[in-house]
Amino acid sequence: MSPAKVQDQNRRGWIVPVGGAEEKDGDPVILRRFVEISGDDEARIAVIPTASRLDDTGDRYVRLFSELGAGDARSLDYKRREDADHPEWLAYLREATGVFLTGGNQLRISTILGGTDVARAIRMVNARGVPVGGTSAGAAILSEHMIAFGKSGASPRAGMVSLAPGFGLTNRVVIDQHFRQRDRIGRLLAALAYNPFAVGVGLDEDTAAFIDGDDCIEVTGSGAITIVDASQLEHSSMGAAEDGDSICMTGIRLHILTEGSRYDLHARIATPPGASSES
Question: How many domains does the chain fold into?
Fold first, then answer.
């Protein structure tokens, strides 16, 4: 699924994948910034808790966004595919100034909302300038190619990762979350062995990639983002590997980016905190 076309008079909205377990009680810098880019006290944030099986997940984020100064927030509790036809919820989503998907299981989102008017509305509002974010499972589904599930480990192996279609807000990245906490570098590398065009973005917990309309990542949060650039891949043994085999990959570039760092997804250039992106 390719990103929705951005009209000439518009600028694509922020895409904000969060690595999960973002700070909610002390200094919630990620959620606060999401409220800011959604309009502060004029923000109208649609919370989509579909990934979660917990009944109070959506209401919790509504309360958090309201406490952080959002003018309005509402949980759109899509639990079944038929819920995607709910006219009042769809109207709210189409008029939202921010959309946020909670954590849980990304396959619940894709199987319940994939191919529905809700998924199309999320793509269209982002194309006209509305920020769309998600944490954990909600982060994974934002891109065109979604990591559905996989195994932990530092080395890539054939069969280590399974991909599924995401919402397709961007085709520039493949996202993985809880990255260092769950030792997921191997499965991200395996995903890139299938699709070297995309940039691998491994998000630590309490860390977000704020991706602007020019496809530049700004890092926010207490952890780090691991950037894996396979654009200069020289060799991959994935095509000849049997299930479980270790994969040989050469020519990979890797960056570890912390708060204040930037990464240009077009130029494939990383900029450390405090440095000018033009230097």
Answer: 1
